[in-house]
């Protein structure tokens, strides 16, 4: 498993060394070199290193120019070789001895896809796609192959294609859209999933010869009490979750992957998330959701490999073999009526969750990570953690031991004409079986005191295949 992702972090001097695949070669025209240099760093090497000292952002891709590379070599960075030239200048920063903020690179080719037990990054861009009318099985396979190659490059901090944003022919559109030029990898992960309609449309059409490979559990989630789902915010043949510590890096990934899909698939709906609402590693502090409460305290964490194996990864024999080592992703766009919430007394707010707002401790006592004691009662004999509180209803003890790996994000998408924020929580959870989510959500939808302040408006379920092997592509086993 991918547990202990923190141990897999590569923040050493050459985090994106896979960049060797896309060097700028000596044969590139001088005109292009000069344009690239002018766009990246007009003054060459000295300011490549100098820029590193200025701070993390403006430092990086300046190192990709050949002029910068040769300069670095001249400055004593032995053994870099031309092969790493196309990596962003994070290398240049590290070579100068200062670890670059945002230089985290998570390996792409591994047993499980990254972006699940990976320590939850700060930013999200999530997109669901539909295959184009008339797209063929060959189109789908080629799309997954192209996405895999692009995702490997993007997560390593490289541009798309051989020439990237500014290195290509002057009279052709650049291969990479360019808005991440100069930015470090920022811990980007790209996680791809397959929706039920990829296997069979709601009209029963088997477009890609995949109907017999659909896992029995990969069907639309049931309608839960209180659901107010909007068709335009749910479903999808495919999905991509892009998480990064820099919003521009996450958006750049989705933009370029959808550009690559042009003619084969198009975005059906998408969601930006500006702040994580979970911790997926014990190394992380617990963030807060837009109700102001710590969120992610009692979550499945990467450092619990046995729990992850039992509750997150699809096991051998659970269903079709192509999904073994994968997971199921549930996405729910949950609107929060924060204006109502903000007029609610602190006592009511804490009663709704069953935890204190400041520390995040259970109302039965202790500190943040103390196990809630659901049996303890107050002076009046009433339970300290109310029967309708969110944590009681969602706790494994009330749900046959079921656990979820929650990986959601806060969002604010503008406002309505009364000045109310279109705010909420884009809930994402990973689980071995969709029924884990259904069990918990059914209990919440029926009884949760929080329902007065939330509304589920979007819903989707995807099967997330295991990670790709180097030289292969995401989901390859589905087409074997
Ligand atoms: C706007 C929607 C939601 C908000 C604001 C919210 C907030 C919270 C908060 C503050 C906690 C306590 C801290 C923690 O342990 O992380 C919590 C716990 C939890 N939530 Fe939610 N949540 C939301 C939706 C959901 C949904 C849809 C599910 C699943 C169907 C869910 C499942 C859980 C679980 C399993 C726990 C841990 C319970 C425990 O073991 O103590 N939550 N949530």
Automatic annotation (TrEMBL):
The chain crosses the membrane at residues 69-86. The keyword Iron applies. Binds 1 heme b (iron(II)-protoporphyrin IX) group non-covalently per subunit. Residues 38-58 have a biased composition (Low complexity). It comes from Cryobacterium algoricola. Its EC number is 1.11.1.-. This is Deferrochelatase. Residues 113-274 form the Dyp-type peroxidase N-terminal domain. InterPro entries: Dimeric_a/b-barrel, Dyp_perox_C, Dyp_perox_N, Dyp_peroxidase, EfeB/EfeN. It is found in: Cell envelope. Its main location: other. Belongs to the DyP-type peroxidase family. Residues 1-64 are annotated as: Disordered. The keyword Iron applies. Pfam families: Dyp_perox_C, Dyp_perox_N. Keywords: Heme, Iron, Membrane, Metal-binding, Oxidoreductase, Peroxidase, Signal, Transmembrane, Transmembrane helix. It is an enzyme of class 1 (oxidoreductase). The gene is efeB. Involved in the recovery of exogenous heme iron. Extracts iron from heme while preserving the protoporphyrin ring intact.
